[in-house]
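User: Hey, quick favor. My workstation is busy. Could you predict this chain's structure for me?
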Amino acid sequence: MTGPRLLTFADAVGEIARVTRREVRYLPVTPEQFVSSLTGRGVSTEYATQLAGLMVEVFDGRRAGVTDTVERILGRPAHDFAEYVRKTAATGVWDARAESSDGA
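Assistant: No problem, here it is.
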């Protein structure tokens, strides 16, 4: 499902950074880095490798395209990601700061 315009992950992160006025960057990782990160967190190598294969297809753009799926399912036009970002930022949910490891 898509919104009314095609965005890359970098575009989406850029929109969040623009609206929140924060430095937010999209940092791509290789499939090997992805697998290593997951297995380092206890995910099995087999499952992590399968997920990496899926992610390659998602991130390489081979299935990129705008569709009318959202409109057909919901009976209304899809909202643009920029609208989602503005509404979400206005809730303050992205203002939360991560807790430090010592609970402070």
